[in-house]
Structures are given as structure tokens and as C-alpha cells.
Amino acid sequence: LIPITAFALGTWQVFRLGWKTELIAIFEDRLVKSPLPLPPRVDPDAIKDFDYRKVYTSGWFRHDQEMLIGPRIHDGNDGYLVVTPLERNDGGSTVLVNRGWIPRSKKAQVERKDGLPTGQVTVEGLLREPWKKNLFTPDNQPQKKEFYFPDVQQMAKLTGSDAVWIEETMSPNLLMAYDREARGIPIGRPAEVNLRNNHTQYIFT
């Protein structure tokens, strides 16, 4: 029974390895392409075909509708992801922007004035499919402004936005990251694929 089970598990891991390797290759191919302007209206059902595609769009951040997801760890420090609706130009839909990470000490907006631009901004980032919640993550409590997980549908409904999720990107730069952390400006993610692919090591264990 044990050899049969081991063979079945190994076969499944080989299948998963091939599937994830192919998926990573698709995402990396999208990452090397030039950013696309985000259309005024985006069909949420079509986002899966553009997952990890670089996009850009302009508008005004609705800081009054900001949502903080946490706790989130960055380089060993506790903090939050800053999610802000972007009210777009020319009648475009409002979308959700994951602006990046801030430390816990900058949770209150009064502590991070530099991180709250008031004029028109242009956001460049990755169009992403909604995240999948795991069994160990608590449910969000929006009535208390407590968010543990980016439930895109819930957040969109709460803010009157479309269920479109953009993860703002920045080039990896240690000095810039330190400066942003000190000033409470969100540290965006690098434009890279961050899927873990551990199936090769599982096949041989």
C-alpha cells in the first residue's frame, strides 16, 4: 500500500511541477512586456487572462476610504499593506490599488503625511487576480476597519469600486525603501513572479 501511495503522490507532484512551471513561464513572459494603459472599464472576469500584466493608470487616491491589511511582515518588521481606491480620470472606473507596506508605527495617517499624495497621480503596477484566502486567516471585520486578507469583492463593494486589483510596483532599492519606511510612504512590490515552486524537491523526498 505504501509504495502505491508514494507512486501516486509522486505522479501528482510531477503533474503539479509541470503545471506551475508553465504558469510561471506565462507570467514571466507578461512581465517583460511594456505596461498597458488600463482601459476605462475592466471586466473582472477577464483579469485571469492578464494576471501579472504591467498596467498604468491615473487618478486621485481616495485616502478617506483607505484600508489597512495586517499584520504583514516586511524584512522582519511588523506593519500593514495600504489599499486605497483610485478614482480615475475621464470617467474611468474606480479601482483598488495595493500601494505597498508601511510599518506599524505609521498606521495613523497623521503620522505619514508624505505618503498621502493629494494631487493627480499615475500608478504603475501589476494587474492581479484576487488572492485566495487560506483556512488559518481570520475573517475581515470591515465594520471595525480590521482587514486580515485582501477580499477584493468585499473591499470593492465597501468602497464603491470595481473589483479590479492593482499591486503598485517599484524597483528594488534599499536606500529608497529605508526612506519610504521612515516617511510612511508605502513600499511597493518588485515587478516579479512570486509563486513558490517546491514540487521538484517533493518528488525526491
List keywords for this structure.
7 strands, alpha+beta, 205 residues, 25% strand, five-stranded mixed beta barrel
Number of separate helices: 4
Overall radius of gyration: 19 Å
The percent range for strand residues is: 25-35%
- Proportion of residues in helical segments: 25-40%
SSE string, helix = H, strand = E? HEEEEEEHEHH
Question: For the largest beta sheet, what order do the strands appear in spatially?
Answer: 2-4-5-7-6
Gap between N and C termini: 18 Å
Largest sheet: 5 strands, mixed, barrel
Low-confidence stretches: 197-205
What class would the helix/strand composition place it in?
alpha+beta
How many individual β-strands? Answer: 7
Q: Average pLDDT, to the nearest integer?
A: 86
Apparent shape: globular
Question: What would a concise description of this structure say?
Answer:
The protein is 26% helix and 25% strand. The chain contains 4 helices and 7 strands; from the N terminus they run H-E-E-E-E-E-E-H-E-H-H.
Describe the structure in your own words.
The protein is an alpha+beta fold. It has helices at 2-31, 152-159, 174-183, 199-203; strands spanning 36-37, 53-61, 67-74, 77-88, 95-103, 121-128, 165-168. Strands 2-4-5-7-6 form a five-stranded mixed beta barrel. It is globular and about 40 Å long. The chain starts with a helix and ends with a helix. The relative contact order is 0.19. Mean pLDDT is 86; it is low at 197-205.
